[in-house]
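Objective 1b of the project was to move from sequence-level analysis to a structural picture of ligand recognition. The entry below was assembled by the postdoctoral researcher (A.K.) and checked by the PI before modelling. It contains the amino acid sequence of the target and the SMILES of the bound compound, zinc ion.
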Amino acid sequence: MTERTPSRRTTATAPPAFPKPGHNHARCAAEALGKAEAVCAARGTRLTEIRRQVLETVWQSHVPVGAYEILAQLNAGGGDRPPSQNSRALTARGGPPSQNSRALTARGGRHAPMAVYRALEFLMDNGLIHRLASLNAYIGCAHLGEDPHAAQFLICRRCGTTAELKSAALNRALDQAVTERGFTIDSQLVEIGGICPNCRPNHRRPKS
Ligand SMILES: [Zn+2]
Ligand SMILES: [Zn+2]
Ligand SMILES: [Zn+2]
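Corresponding predicted holo structure:
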């Protein structure tokens, strides 16, 4: 069954499962930010400055980013502001951040780690980003604005690019397998490591 029906509809907003290098990522990011604003408005919450900045940083690429990297970037002047002199201290890795309570105070940087964690929590609670446990990092939700959903993530071990799948068939299969064991799912997030089509040298990419 290798029918080659190019079912390429011009649904310009539907991102491909694996974004190609050099795609118009500014558009991905702008769309995500726009939808996030709409989601917040609809829920009567606010995408405050810090929340927006964190979301922008998460959306700077399709590679998951850790909380400390987000913080370092914000404090290094990810926005329009001059770089902070304290960003050095904040990029130094000192073990798992959540256990290092001393690090949770601002050291003259523009943002304290706690502020970034709170913003990340807000973004997760509102379904704007997902946390990938295997990487301890965050990725923008590809189905932003939809209700909390089960998702599968394909994580490339080479370039780090991560694509979100939302396969109803997979969800059903998992649901069934789990229910048979008397288990009730309250959250489901599958992380699958591998090599993405962009990193597989012999992969034939569809012509664009
Ligand atoms: Zn993109
Ligand atoms: Zn999602
Ligand atoms: Zn890759």
